[in-house]
Amino acid sequence: MATRSMFFRIIWKLLGASRGRLALALVALSSGAAVSSALLNVNLDAERKLTQEFRTLGANIVIAPPSGGSDAALADSSVMDGIAGLRARQIIAAAPFLYVAANSGTQPVILAGTWFDQVAKMNSWWKIDGSWVASRESHLRCLVGSAAARQLGLAIGSPVELRSGDHTISLTVAGIVTAGGAEDSQIFTDLSVAQDLAGLSGRVSLVQLSVSGSSSDIEALTNRLASALPGLDVRPVRQIAAAEGTILGRIRGLIFWTIALILALSMLGVLASMAALAMERRRDVGLMKALGGPVSRIMRLFLVEAGALGILGGTIGFVVGMLLARWMGSSVFGVAISPRPIVFPLTIILTVAVALLGAFPLRLLGRVRPAEILRGE
Amino acid sequence: MAPLVQVENLEKRFDEVRALKQVSFDVEAGEWIAIMGPSGSGKTTLINILGGLDHPTSGRVTVDGMDIAELGERELTRYRSDKIGFVFQQFHLVSYLTAVENVMLAQYFHSITDETEAVESLRRVGMGDRLDHVPAQLSGGEQQRVAIARALINNPKLILADEPTGNLDEANEAIILNLFRDLHSSGHTILVVTHSQAIGNLADRRVELEHGRLARISVPSVAREQV
Asked: Could you tell me if A111 and A164 are in contact, meaning their C-beta atoms sit under 8 angstroms apart?
């Protein structure tokens, strides 16, 4: 017990005696730990934040009748109820669509009936001139794709009359949509309006879902939906899922290599301080060996000292890193990154490892020959 | 009863330089030996080998029944901790440890630390009022007294001192010599490397080296009381 107390007494004195050099090593360790813990936190939060961001970029699951089926439309209420019945919190938005071939005057046009509130959540990247139709109850207003608007000579506020079979409806253009895809050639109106026009009450062509989570989460939800909705095709939009996975993978890779580089730089800082410290301590190590100190016991002193430095540097770095992560979160993702408790032990482990590797010059002191040191060589 | 130290045909080479050439002598337990000779005669090399800090090239060195020429690094470390108490010309105290901690350092590497015992050891050398001073706060003589307390703390079989008064003024030299005299009186075996005739005269025998050879072993003619 007394020997252990002497051990810590020596460690304490060692830390105090080399304050200057150890402070430099501590700065290197804390800086590395701060950036590493911030990036680790960002990495852990990145998937959640990025998938939230991705969810504004369109659907990643589509539910449709089996291809080649005779019935081109589905039962609206049963599908949407089936989806809601799963109570899956991953589902950010679920929008039914009914596509109707209509005419505006003599010009053919596709009318897409949907739930605007859900489409707005799913496609926040759509460029709208004018205004969104935000409610499912706005039966008299529509959004017109930019290509369709040009073809039909429509502008914001224009009336548009659509005919399908014997049915005719009159709508007002609330906004012009530029989405960069097939949507630009379509007219969007409320689902019930399209159903009335087509005489397909309670029917939809397909349902688009925007779902958060990793590729495997999406795959799992797809299977649950397929079980809950027998007779329908439930398909993840693979290109989007794969693109999200690639982006996440690249961000993770970037973060990993940045952390590795930062820690390597920290280690160089620690190495420089420890090399100078090793020169200062040669005489003490020679003396300790002359007094009968086993190399392992002397080295344990230095390694525990380096470890203590790593723990202190890691703790300081973690605190600074959390502030840094918060700043990075608000400036990169526009939201505060939440501190993740797991980052603390990870930071400590990494920083202690860097400190121990950086203490390599001190380990070389084990080779000191006491007779040479005591002669003053 | 076998001598405490037996040196037989001891040879030490540093590359082409023969630092010790066929040196042989014995030391009885409780004896005070002065190792003397001009600079470069091999005194420090001899004491380093006796202290387990260096390996002989050939020959045999037995201390307390152990042939230290046959010991590996680990055994030599244990040997230094168990059997030897070192006192150096440069004192060699750890600068960031207090006087009592410097003494406890030797305990720490030997077995278990006992602060009370370390304090007692410092009191014996007249350093009871300087326990918590670091070396920079102590005079040369005081530092050497701490080094002597450290050398004694583990009850070594052999005290090896390399020019222990070489860096001290006369007053402090007298204090240190009195301490050595007390140690000798209490039965400690002491080997002191010295240039000082005064210390040589205090010893039971003088082992004189010249160019690495044993030149002579003599008994000082001057009575100790006169020093």
From this structure: yes
Angle at B55 between CA B53 and CA B57, to 5 degrees: 155
- 3-state DSSP helix/strand/coil % of chain A, to nearest 5: 60, 20, 20
Provide the pLDDT for residue B221: 66
- Structure confidence at residue A2 (pLDDT): 64
Per-residue pLDDT at A52: 64
Most A CBs within 10 Å, among B54, B87, B94, to test the A interface? B94
Residue B67, SS3? strand
The pLDDT of residue A97: 92
User: Residues 279..308 of A with a Cβ closer than 8 Å to B: which?
Assistant: 283-284, 287-295, 297
What's the pTM value of the predicted model, to 2 decimals? 0.70
Checking if the pLDDT of B59 tops 60, the result is yes
B174-185 pLDDT tens trace: 888 888 898 899
- What is the chain A residue with the closest CA to B90? A374
- B112 and A2 within 8 Å at the Cβ level: the answer is yes
Question: Which fold would CATH assign to domain B5-226?
Answer: Rossmann fold (3.40.50)
Residue A5 phi, psi dihedral angles, 5° rounding: -65, -35
Name the minimum distance, in Å, from the CA of B81 to any CA of chain A: 4
What is the model's pLDDT at position B115? 93
How many angstroms separate the CA atoms of B35 and B90, rounded? 18
Show me where the domains of chain B are located.
5-226
Distance from CA of B175 to the nearest CA of A (A): 24
Q: Cα-flanking dihedrals φ and ψ of residue B11, to 5°?
A: -130, 135
The one-letter code for the residue type at A240 is: I
Ordered mean pLDDT values, 10 residues apiece, chain A (377 residues): 80 89 93 93 74 69 75 66 83 90 90 90 84 75 93 91 90 91 91 89 88 79 88 79 74 88 93 89 92 92 92 96 86 75 94 94 86 74
Give CA angle at A103 (A97, A107), nearest 5°.
120
**Using a CB-CB distance cutoff of 8 angstroms, which residues of chain B are in contact with residue A20?**
none
Longest CA span, chain A:
112
Q: Per-residue pLDDT for B1 more than 80?
A: no
The pLDDT value recorded for residue B223 is 43
Can you give the pLDDT at residue B167?
83
Q: What DSSP string describes A299-367?
A: HHHHHHHHHHHHHHHHHHHHHHHHHHHHHHIIIIISSPPPP-TTHHHHHHHHHHHHHHHHTHHHHGGGG
Tell me which H or E stretch contains B17: strand B17-27
Residues of chain A contacting B48 with CB distance shorter than 8 Å? 371
Residues pairing with A278 in the sheet: none
Residues of A in contact with B111 (CB under 8 A): 3
Flag if B54 and A371 touch (Cβ within 8 Å). Answer: yes
**B chain contacts of residue A295, beta-carbon cutoff 8 Å:** 77
What is the separation, in whole angstroms, between the first and last Cα of chain B? 32
> Quick check: A288 and B81 CB within 8 A?
no
- The ipTM value here is 0.90
Please give the domain boundaries of chain A with CATH numbers for all domains. 2-52+248-374 (no CATH), 61-236 (2.40.40.20)
Q: Give the pLDDT confidence score for residue B111 in this predicted structure.
A: 87
Q: Please, what sign has the CA dihedral across residues B86, B89, B95, B101?
A: positive
